[in-house]
Amino acid sequence: MKPCITLLTFLVHILYVVGQEKPVPPEGMVYVPAGEFIMGSVYGDPDERPQQIASTKAFFIDKYEVSNTEFAKFDPTFKFPPEKKNNAAIVTWSKADAYAKWAGKRLPTEKEWEKAARGIDGRVFPWGDTYDNTYVVWDQKETRGTSIAKPASPYGCYDMAGSVWEWTSDWYKPYPGNTVPMEQYGETYKVMRGGSNFNNHSFIRTSQRYYVLPEKIHVYPVGIRCVKDID
């Protein structure tokens, strides 16, 4: 069940988006317009509730996750096998945050990440409501954007389901109105999104949240997808 967005509200939103002057994204990024979208889930894990109407300002977001080659331009000591130069870089939160700042960008908030992944219609996966295994990069031997069907999110982002988890800027905290206790809530764990190659399809839903210690990722392959504010 999704929050009720009336036809009038939807049309007003569309007219607002169409009326906005669409800026040209920087190279390797796509544009996400300002406005409302459906965030969270009524059937997922307790931390995805309550499902809500959220909003963001307009922003740019990377089309792909940051590659090993791109990260090595920031950190020359970063090592990776030559055959994985176009694979998503796996780094701790502080390194991801430092890279984003170096690139003149920042890490996305949960709201920004989820909106870029699902658009405004509350879809379950970046491509729609039906799961398809050919849409996902499951093997990290594969380079970015190499799923068989090559699906994109509503705004043109790739690999927002599967591939590697992706860092957000947010601490793992409950959504406003959530009354289900979680001992992990607070400012100890950072939120990562997007699932990964060892997870089942429930982990790659657009509303799925997961938490990890920012500097102790261990078995969690977490990568970077940056956003940039629009002046």
Strand order of the largest sheet: 7-6-5-8
Arithmetic mean pLDDT: 89
Radius of gyration: 17 Å
Major β-sheet annotation: 4 strands, mixed
Q: What structural class should be given to the helix and strand makeup?
A: alpha+beta
Stretches where pLDDT is under 50 for at least 5 consecutive residues are: none
Strand content: 15-25%
Domain Sulfatase-modifying factor enzyme-like: 27-228
InterPro entries: CTDL_fold, Sulfatase_Mod_Factor_Kinase, SUMF_dom, SUMF_sf
Organism: Arenibacter algicola
Protein name: Iron(II)-dependent oxidoreductase
Question: Could you explain the architecture of this structure?
Answer:
This is Iron(II)-dependent oxidoreductase. The protein has helices spanning 7-19, 68-74, 93-102, 110-118; strands at residues 29-32, 35-39, 52-56, 59-62, 165-171, 190-193, 210-212, 222-223, 227-229. The chain is of the alpha+beta class and 231 residues long. It has a 4-stranded mixed β-sheet. The longest helix has 13 residues, at 7-19. The N and C termini lie far apart (36 Å). The mean pLDDT is 89.
Summarize the structure.
17% of the residues lie in helices and 16% in strands.
